[in-house]
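PROTEIN ENTRY
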Amino acid sequence: MKIYYWSPFFTNIATIKAVIKSAESLVKFSKEKKYDVSIIDAIGEWDPYDKIINKKINIIKLNKINLGKYLPKNSFIKSRFSYIFIFLWNFFKLKNLINKEKPNFLIIHLMTSLPIFLSLFFNKETKIILRISGLPKINLIRYFFWKTFSSKIYKVTCPTTSTYNYIIGKNLFKEEKIEILSDPIIDMAEYRVKKRKIFNNEKLKNKKYLIGIGRLTKQKNFGLLINFFKKISDLYPNLNLVIIGEGEKESELKQLSAKFKDNQKIHFTGYQNNVFKYLLNAECFILTSLWEDPGFVLVEAALTNLPIISSKCPNGPEEIIKDNGYLFKNNDLDDFYNKFEDFLNTNKKEIYKNKVIIKKRVKKFTLLQHFRKLDQIIN
């Protein structure tokens, strides 16, 4: 059975891991080896990941030239231009590929408008699975587009129960088409290797620090985290703040931290391939996002038994943490501070109990659990 993935991207985002690990789960756990899995490369975006993608997964290049490095991507308007370019440049190439190879399923993430529109011209053998990554904004254009093409979509998968209920409430697709499919965030074999890596950041050795991880974008709301750290720094002078990630807000966030008198306590590490060695040495993981679904780094932090303080944002954090962590009102600095004080005043026994419960809760985000559900959907 042929399974193709479509997920063009420009920058390091969590969906990249979701696609790679989803494809990996199909070739790893299928006992009958019944899946022939391929990832479609639209603009050369998968070139940097060639060494980490399982060799049993095919990479099908629509273009010989790596077009991605030439496309603008550092602002909303520029990225819209790039989306239009990808749509037009790959229109006939994607159509011809699908009609020639006739995959049984085309699983689509990101820039889904092209394959959905092309479904008008696809062969009848190929079924589309629309994989919703993160909490979607259902504006008028998206609503009309999804509603119009809903009959062409075989299944719609949602990463959390909250998003599942949200999509059902929008009345875009028949309810029987919508499924909950947890993201394949946790690869236990990978985790066991990465957690043993030596923590060699000299600036942070033997220091206590809070940690935030994610793209440096509006969504992740790291400005709130920096302002919070300014507020508590005098009270807790031994604490440092570590921010892992890269993105268009990097310069703005560094300027904000530079205004802080003890700015040497705020450490920007850039993108890190192994976040576990940082998580395992931290005091607490903090998520300040305005929205998440479910929040990959939240799951990874839970896996490392790290206490979690998170914004009560839609949709994932509340579903994972519930009453076993610290949820503050979305984008509310005062409530953020109050929940941090609650954390400091909680006894170690209670903190340990909460960590164990949350860790059990995120087991549904393993590759194996993802495979079992995806295998069920496909069959």
Summary: The two ends are 10 Å apart (CA to CA). The first strand starts at residue 2 and ends at 6.
